[in-house]
Amino acid sequence: MKGNEAIAEAAIRANCRHFFGYPITPQTEISAYMAKRMPKIGGTFLQAESEVAAINMVYGAAGAGVRAMTSSSSPGISLKAEGLSYIAGADLPCVVVNIVRAGPGLGGIQPAQSDYFQAVKGGGHGDYKMIVLAPSSIQETVDSTFDAFDLADKYRMPVMILGDGMLGQMMEPISFPDSADRPTYDKDWATTGTKNKRRANVINSLYIQPEELEQVIWAREEKYREIEKTEVKYESEGLGDADVVVVAYGTTARVVKAAVKAAADEGIKVGLIRPVTLWPFPSEIIAKTAKNVKAMLSVEMSTGQMVEDIRLAANGACPVAFYGRTGGVIPTPDGILEQIRRMVI
Amino acid sequence: MEIVFQRPKALADVPFHYCSGCSHGIVHRLVAEVIDELDIAGDTIGVAPVGCSVFAYNYFNVDMQQAAHGRAPAVATGVKRANPDNIVFTYQGDGDLAAIGTAETVHAAARGENITVIFINNAIYGMTGGQMAPTTLVGQVTQTSPYGRKIEAQGYPIRMSEMLATLEGPSFIKRCSVDSVKNINDTKNAIKKAFQNQMDKKGFSMVEILSTCPTNWGLSPVESLGWLRENMIPHYPLGVYKDIDGGEKV
Ligand SMILES: Cc1ncc(C[n+]2csc(CCOP(=O)(O)OP(=O)(O)O)c2C)c(N)n1
Ligand code: SF4
After folding, report:
1. Do A3-192+218-230 and A234-344 fold alike per CATH?
2. I need a labelling partner for B22 at 20 to 30 A (CA). Which of A2, A96, B30, B171 fits?
3. Residue A246's beta-bridge partner residues?
4. Do the Cβ atoms of A274 and A113 come closer than 8 Å?
5. What's the pLDDT score for residue A198?
6. Predicted complex ipTM
7. Which residues of B touch A197 (CB under 8 A)?
8. Residue of A15, A19, A59 for testing the chain B interface, max B β-carbons within 10 Å
9. Where are chain A's structural domains?
10. Per-residue pLDDT, B250
């Protein structure tokens, strides 16, 4: 199955029945798949008039207590920023897919990771976070989609799946987890109608009293701290005796793995950290690793965004170099190997 | 003793923050009365806008969602699609519905989304202190049209009811006013029909209500009613613009 279709099917199997989208390359297969499947299973597929409308439909549906989802690519995610901020501010669960393309502006449709800042630092206004999952295989994309809905419901917050055109178009064999094994969540806060049996529920992000708003924001921060403690996910290789450790996520991590293997074949002691959650960021393992290695290298399809978080985590314990290709250019194993070689000279 | 006048059950027992002479309070009451009379409070979800009526979520005794500026019809679409048996209404000002949220309004109407839209047209941005609205009349002085709205610079006011009536999606569109007892009664009937249509699954209904904003018009409440009659009604004729049940149109 193609990555984009795998996300759509996984969402349906994770009991998402409400999808609101707006066409944009390279993620249109998600909408197309939803358009075909949703009507057959009593779900809603709605092509909105814009990404702004789509994310606000998600807000309404999520607030009404159902699993809701939207997907887009970079320029569309910029338009969703307003809605994401409101969703975070109203503590609503939802899943947003960003199949990233090159920017800024209309940019290009080829794979990129230049929306890292937008995804992990907010994108919309205000003090808020999204959980950001960055799968690097189609199976992991499927698993991430299931996880995304559970995390969203568990913490009542937006969860983003960050991919790129390469993952979206790639085909790999997959198996789907069983949704029956998943927890269910009671949504007694949702606007389902009081049925004259309870007090009215309100979905809202407005607080006129500064002290009250501050309290709400700090309470949310506490939830974020909890997530940073419990939900970090990463993959690592060869950290034990490494001189150099490369950090990369998503599509780039696949290329980096080939480069790391080639470097190891040359006798270079090189390890890999692949963040699966970009927020919460695997800062702890990076901090620990930085103390034991000569240097770290961040490889990204951007001009250098995640590298800032690696440097913060490393906190000066070792130099952190950066190698990136951007604009839709995918780094090659040779290009990365060349960088690794330079670091051990 | 017979009770002849009391707070509708669908209206929460809290003081409004609206200025004296503001139409928002009247229209809130009408909506609440209709919800009571149709006995739908338990199934109703309201969507509050950004504008002076942003706190509508505190005033209606039903489940409420507060939407971003202009996005109420999209939010209402999500709410309705999630639970189609619920009754969903939006309550929006003219800046919200006819400027920043034009696309959301037009497309919810075009889809025939089965929701009810209550549209407060007071020809000005109330909440932000009296700036020009898409509905501000030609020549009308506002904070951002200090020399009066000029066609060359600011173009023409939008007649939303007329515009949306050209679409096939809506089932009912009527422009009303709350400047007199007769018109208030008429407005209530229109609101009731707009909710009833949704219950009967007829699709999108909108009631546009010409309203006063004494504070930002710089007039007394009574003068405001006069200004509405003399200036707004001629430009925004009252009446039915669309009714799939075949009612008489303007
Ligand atoms: C995105 C965004 N832009 C601008 C504002 C500021 N703002 C708040 S209310 C408002 C205008 C409201 O006017 P209207 O919809 O006519 O409602 P009224 O206050 O007159 O009832 C504006 C521009 C905002 N809250 N959000
Ligand atoms: S500013 Fe105008 S619209 Fe707002 S409450 Fe006062 S009178 Fe009403």
Report:
1. yes
2. B171
3. A272, A297
4. no
5. 98
6. 0.97
7. 42
8. A59
9. 3-192+218-230, 234-344
10. 82
**What does DSSP say about strands A295-300 and A320-324: parallel, antiparallel, or unpaired?**
parallel
CATH class of A234-344: alpha beta
**Euclidean distance between CA atoms A63 and B204, whole angstroms:** 21
* pTM, 2 dp: 0.97
For B12-44, the pLDDT digits (tens) are 999 999 999 999 999 999 999 999 999 999 999
Select the residue of B45, B47, B54 nearest A206 (Cβ to Cβ): B54
CB atoms within 10 A of CB A139: 15
Rounded Cα–Cα distance for residues B115 and B87 (Å)? 7
Q: What is the pLDDT of residue A152?
A: 98
- If one looks up domain B24-243 in CATH, what number appears? 3.40.50.970
Half-sphere exposure (Cβ direction) of B154: Cα atoms closer than 13 Å: 21
Instruction: Give residue A105's identity as a one-letter amino acid code.
Output: G
Q: Give residue B105's pLDDT band: very low, low, confident or very high (50, 70, 90).
A: very high
Integer Cα distance of B48 and B56 in angstroms: 6
A288/A236 Cα distance (integer angstroms)? 13
CA-nearest of B111, A98, B51 to B103 is B111
Q: Which residue, among B116, B87, B67, has the nearest Cα to A55 in the 3D structure?
A: B67
Residue A31: which H helix or E strand, with range?
A: helix A28-37
- Return d(Cα A318, Cα B45) in angstroms, integer: 56
Nearest to A127 by CA among A55, A56, A218, A207: A218
* Interchain contact, B68 vs A49, CB within 8 Å: no
Question: How close does chain B come to A104, measured CA to CA in Å?
Answer: 24
> Six-digit token pair at B13?
């027992």
Residue A69 CA neighbour count, 13 Å, CB half: 33
Is the distance from CB of A88 to CB of A119 less than 8 angstroms? no
Cβ <8 Å between B78 and A196: no
Rounded to an integer, what distance in angstroms lies between the CA atom of residue A336 and that of residue B154? Answer: 56
* Structure-block tokens of residue A258: 């080939």
E-state strands within A28-185 = 44-47, 68-72, 94-102, 108-111, 131-133, 158-164
Q: What is the CA radius of gyration of chain A?
A: 20
d(CA A3, CA A51) in angstroms, rounded, equals 21
pLDDT for res B3: 83
pLDDT tier for residue B71 given thresholds of 50, 70 and 90:
very high
Chain-centroid distance of CA A337 in Å reads: 27
CA-based nearest distance A344→chain B, Å: 53
Among chain A residues, CA nearest to B66? A204
Here the tokens at position A131 are 């959980």
CATH class in words for A3-192+218-230: alpha beta
Beta-strand ranges (E) seen in chain A are: 18-21, 44-47, 68-72, 94-102, 108-111, 131-133, 158-164, 202-203, 234-237, 244-247, 270-275, 277-279, 295-300, 320-324
Pairing of strands B63-66, B87-93: unpaired
